[in-house]
Fold:
Amino acid sequence: MAGRIENAIRQTVSAGVLKLAAFNRARMPAPSAPHPYLSGLNAPMDSELTLTDLVVEGTIPPELDGRYLRIGPNPIRPPSAIEAHHWFVGDGMVHGLRLAGGRALWYRNRWVRSSAVSRALGEPEAPGPRHFSDTVNTHVVAQAGKTWALVEAGGYPVRLGDELQTLAHDNFDGSLRGSFSAHPHRHPTTGELHAICYEATDPDHIRHVVIGVDGRVRREEPIAVKHGPSVHDCMLTARHVLVLDLPVTFSMPALVAGYSFPYAWNPAHRARVGVLALDAPGDSITWCDVDPCYVFHPANAYETADGRIVLDVVAHATMFANSRHGPDAEATGFERWAIDTAARRVGRRVVDATAQEFPRIDERFTGRAYRWAWCAGLQRVGGEAFVGAQHLVRHDLQTGARDLHDFGAGRHVGEFVFVPRHAEAAEGDGWLMGLVVDGAAQTTDFVILDAARFGGAPQAVVHLPHRIPAGFHGNWLPTVAAASPA
Structure:
């Protein structure tokens, strides 16, 4: 009976529940220490900048013509209840560097215009439909010649202009019925984006959503679940989408108490990986049990000749078990999972037990056997804070070797993105690019590494005179040449 009542409340998200949450949020005591995701390396920027006189050390490869974009939470105003604030809900800010002709032409940072951000800046609201929330802060991708800022479970995607301005909130031209995901994956053959999406108001279903090369939804297939799981990411093989249904679920007590991110570790929730053929009905999914853990980000997956599936992930022993402010797992590691759909079981093998996150690959090899993966090292500073270490990790999954690129003491690395040297280049032949913060100087370097000389000196460094707050994800978006007139 209690479960049915709770589900009814969650599905309707009644005004009474939200009023009670607001009442309890207002009564929260002031924190006794600075909020770990509003201070230090996570302290937000307070203005939008356009910098064109950029200092460059080394040589920017002339082949790189496009924009590096990275997004993360950056509250435009201090939260009304600091103790209730969670890292994942801050106003989105996108940072970008424009490269062309061997030069760094500009750096820009812009808030993604939610209604609250527009009000704070004294601007008219950005156009377009809204969903449950219109805060978008987690990823930036390209599809159908457009740039999209993304978030999971809440707001619709936001279209960004070439100079990072918010153009519109956009549910893929009206074709998306529900929320989207921060982590769609591009099928390397079809060019379609595949994502697993969920709604806080529907604890019983998630959805496999496919965005076509035309930028419209062509599939939005429901999959039955329990407890309202937080499915942050998924992964593709050539023929399947893999669903990570793990023990972080919607928490009614957290919502009622007033916390802004109502998800928590739930040991009663069955940990499993779903295997679903790309165009199959949702009720045909095969669920395979895995030992309890949580995964924000897989690296890649592929099918073997004997019918098993290999899935490489960064795994956390638990997540959101002890903190309402942000990630709180004590141990992370890079793991290889063997999915046996006949036995309906997943075997786990630790490849590297050191703390790391944000795995990226040469994405031309998504869904295929591959060799290289790169992860940002992690460290803990000041208790809860979840910040980058001073090194980037390279995994050679053929030989088992593990190498580091060390940026030096006091540096903090974020996610690095791989860019192939050209379309036909061998796997791993290209560049790695990302942001590295100098904690003492409060400055940031945009670093380009030659992936073939991983441990060597950077190919190029663009020096930025300010600290970019620790953030989430981004991509290299190459310039697409305009089509010639017929």
